[in-house]
Amino acid sequence: MDNNYSGMAVGVFELDNLVACFVALDAASKAANVKIQSVERNRLKSGACVKMRGSVSDVNAAMEVALEAAKPLGKVVSHTVIASPSEDTEIALKMTINK
Predict the structure, then answer these.
(1) Is residue 1 predicted with pLDDT exceeding 50?
(2) Which of 80, 96, 70 is nearest to 17 (CA)?
(3) In the predicted model, is pLDDT for residue 5 greater than 90?
(4) What tens digit of pLDDT does each residue of 50-95 get?
(5) What are phi and psi of 39, to 5 degrees?
(6) What is the C-alpha separation between 73 and 77, in angstroms, rounded?
C-alpha cells in the first residue's frame, strides 16, 4: 500500500503508554493487511494514538489483535474503526500527524 489512503477504512486506538502501542501496532501489522499511518505521542502523558489503514475487514481484524496484545502492557484508553471516512475526516486525520 502506498500513502494514498483514499477509500480505506481507518482504525484508531489510544493506549496509556508508548511501549504498549508499539507492541500493539506490531501485532496488528502482522495479523492483517494494514498500513500504520501514524503514531502520535500524547504530549501530557506517556501514551500514544495509533492510526492504521486498510480494508474494513483487515482493520477490524488488526484492531482486535492489537488491543489483545496491549492488554498485559497497558490500558486501552479508546479505540474505533471508521469504515469510510469523509473528506473532512481525512483532512482532520492528516492534521494531527507530526504535531
Answers:
(1) no
(2) 70
(3) no
(4) 999 999 999 999 999 999 999 999 999 999 999 999 999 988 888 8
(5) -125, 120
(6) 13
Which residue pairs, CB below 8 angstroms and at least 24 apart, start in 87-93?
Answer: 90/5, 90/6, 93/10, 93/37, 93/51
Contacts of 43 (CB under 8 A, 6+ apart): none
Q: What amino acid is encoded at 16 in this protein?
A: D
The Cα 39–Cα 46 span in angstroms is 13
H or E segment and range at residue 16: none
Q: Which three cell numbers stand for residue 15?
A: 493506549
User: Model pTM?
Assistant: 0.89
Examine the pLDDT at 45 and tell me if it is beyond 80.
Answer: no
For every residue of 32-99, DSSP letters joined together read: SS-EEEEEEE-SSSS-EEEEEEE-HHHHHHHHHHHHHHHTTTS-EEEEEEESS--HHHHHHHHHTTT-
